[in-house]
Design a protein that fits this description.
413 residues, alpha+beta, Aminopeptidase, Alpha-Beta Plaits, 8-stranded mixed β-sheet, 4-stranded antiparallel β-sheet, 13 helices, binds zinc ion
């Protein structure tokens, strides 16, 4: 694949091979969230080779600052973590890596969300921009963010002083690979992705023999009431024109059919688009869980936050500006406006922390003949998720360059 913007940055067959090799290396060597130690060493080494001012931030996060004279500062973010998934793609560069979860469990690790494509593309963009300094002016801050999957990484980088250590950008861009058509790209104006809140709820009761319920406070009956009533938040409390999802994904309690256990536990996940709806749902959840316990004469349940993903909001003006550049780089029909998705990201925190706009889009990774076949295409977080390296990586690279150059020097210049 070639196009004007790649050509104008001197993109050659050697660059193409290097991009593919970098991707294969990263794909074969994934690491779990907030444990991206070798990945960060690799990224740091490559950024230093290119002459960027590069440093670690937030543990395993990496920042590369490319300074090229006066002008705007632009941020570009790529996330770096893999997932606890046993890869089943059969690819020659498939991962056989293993990692250890926080609870000590050994698990296989895979770049099952495609963050390897994000890193490979961002490194190539840095290289091409570092080589084409005559045609643009300003500063680009490349943010290689760890721990996206756990919503810990953006917070860790900010807590470590990201925007004190790196120049503050006037806009932050980011992108994600997904199994849409390769060569194409999808973008939403305004809200792009949902907020996501996950909780663990421990329902406390009183243990007794299964034949003596009068001596018990049954946490299983109580937990079941909580879980059923929680669904009425959506059907009876949230206005029908608003969107929200509440999913209870696990429910565990007890060891034997004739013992009423002392406690039970469930985990839930909430997705919302509007901050006011999020507040409403979370407040109602807490109220229902606590009140159901009170209604059973049970101790107050313990509610713990597992993770909290912020909103991913695409500033309409910045989105319109970037969309125009993306269309001119990739072709009018290859960039589609789409409604927001219920997926979540911690990307939004990076720009929100300093009150600047951000724009985030998805680039496709499935060849059109494969998309049109009968068998469904495995998506992100699936053990068979396998982006077609060509032209996916070059689409991501083209989009990165076009977006960055929207502010620091005319795209395709
Ligand atoms: Zn993911
Ligand atoms: Zn992802």
């Amino acid at each position: 694949m070639t196009n004007d913007i790649l050509a104008s940055h001197g993109y050659s067959t050697t660059d193409q091979q290097k991009l593919q090799e970098t991707y294969r290396y990263l794909h074969a060597n994934p690491e779990l969230s907030m444990q991206e130690t070798n990945t960060s060493k690799f990224l740091l080494g490559r950024l230093e080779e290119l002459g960027l001012d590069a440093f670690l931030c937030g543990g395993t996060g990496v920042v590369g600052v490319l300074r090229n004279g006066p002008g705007p500062v632009v941020g570009f973010r790529a996330d770096t973590d893999g997932l606890p998934i046993g890869e089943n793609t059969g690819l020659e560069y498939a991962s056989t890596a293993e990692g250890t979860l926080e609870d000590g469990t050994r698990v296989p690790v895979m770049h099952g969300c495609g963050h390897d494509t994000h890193m490979a593309v961002a490194l190539a963009a840095a290289e091409l921009l570092a080589r084409s300094t005559g045609s643009w002016s300003g500063t680009v801050v490349f943010i290689f963010q760890p721990g996206e999957e756990t919503a810990a990484g953006a917070r860790a980088m900010l807590a470590d002083g990201l925007w004190e250590k790196a120049p503050q950008p006037e806009v932050v861009y980011g992108q994600h690979v997904w199994p849409g058509v390769a060569g194409g790209l999808e973008i939403s104006s305004g809200t792009a992705m949902a907020m996501a809140d996950s909780w663990k709820v421990t329902v406390l009761g009183r243990q007794a023999h299964g034949s003596q319920p009068e001596k018990s406070i049954d946490p299983i009956v109580l937990g079941a009431h909580m879980i059923v009533r929680i669904q009425t938040i959506l059907s009876r409390e949230v206005p029908p024109r608003e969107s929200a999802v509440v999913t209870v994904g696990t429910f565990h309690g007890g060891l034997k059919e004739n013992i009423i256990p002392a406690s039970a536990e469930f985990t839930l996940n909430v997705r919302t688009f509007e901050p006011a709806v999020r507040d409403q749902v979370l407040t109602a959840l807490r109220r229902i869980i606590t009140a159901e316990a009170a209604a059973s004469g049970a101790p107050e349940p313990v509610i713990e936050e597992i993770s909290s993903f912020p909103r991913c909001y695409n500033d309409p003006a910045a989105t319109a500006e970037v969309t125009e550049q993306l269309r001119s780089a990739l072709g009018e029909d290859n960039v589609r406006d789409v409604p927001p998705v219920m997926g979540s990201e911690d990307f939004g925190l990076l720009a929100d922390a300093i009150g600047v706009p951000s724009v985030y889009w998805m680039f496709g990774s499935t060849l059109s003949e494969r998309l049109n076949s009968e068998t469904p295409v495995p998506g992100n977080h699936h053990p068979e998720f396998a982006p077609a390296p060509e032209p996916t990586l070059e689409t991501g690279l083209t989009a990165a360059l076009a977006a960055i150059r929207t502010r620091v020097g005319g795209a395709g210049a």
